[in-house]
Write a structure and sequence with these properties.
Blueprint lengths: L4 E6 L7 H10 L7 E6 L23 H12 L2 E5 L9 H13 L7 H5 L3 E8 L8 H13 L3 E9 L10 H7 L5
Parallel strand pairs: 1-2, 1-3, 3-4, 4-5
Length: 182
């Protein structure tokens, strides 16, 4: 049996927020042999994505933070997008990371689409609204992205909280976190 490797991409604008807390709680339940890599997009800022598909030369191979994120993304069997719900969608830094996937699809020799197929995409988010339906645009973005790349969709773990630490009072989310990656 191949060992799984989880990449946790943190897309919050603050450290130790509710989304990260919930993701870490879920990750604590993973078997000891599973790899975990945590990357915070605040530490790896990406430039705005520029679509070069129809220009001269196309997309160059990524460098800097983009290269780090590409390598980590391709090296994982499971990609966990941990983004708070900001205006009913993923955060700006998370969206920018996903936008760069479009460029990586076009870089010769990377074979991004083929290498992403079969991986599992997961979502973790904290929201301040009691109605989980407001997170559907975020979940839809991730679910449809997974489908486009022929990835498995693992689902989204939702928790409620506004101030740091609030999510730990959401007993339903805490309970779901304990079995989320099963």
């Amino acid at each position: 049996m191949a060992t799984r490797s989880f990449l946790f991409v943190l897309g919050s604008s603050r450290a130790d927020g509710n989304t990260e807390t919930l993701a870490r709680l879920a990750a604590e339940q993973l078997p000891a042999g599973y790899g975990q890599r945590w990357l915070d997009l605040r530490d790896l800022p990406l430039p705005d994505f520029e679509d070069l598909r129809h220009g001269d030369g196309g997309h160059p191979a990524p460098t800097g933070h983009a290269a780090t994120l590409l390598e980590a993304t391709l090296g994982a069997t499971d990609v966990v997008i941990a983004s708070p719900l900001y205006w009913y969608a993923v955060s700006t830094s998370t969206k920018r990371y996903l936008d760069h996937w479009s460029g990586w699809l076009e870089v010769p020799g990377i074979d991004f689409e083929q290498r992403m197929a079969g991986k599992t995409l997961w979502g973790v988010t904290a929201l301040a609204d009691r109605d989980p339906a407001v997170a559907e645009p975020l979940a839809g973005t991730l679910r449809i992205s997974a489908r486009y790349l022929k990835m498995r969709w693992g689902g989204v773990l939702l928790g409620n909280g506004s101030k740091p630490g609030d999510v730990l009072s959401d007993t339903g989310a805490v309970s779901r976190a304990k079995t989320f990656f099963n």
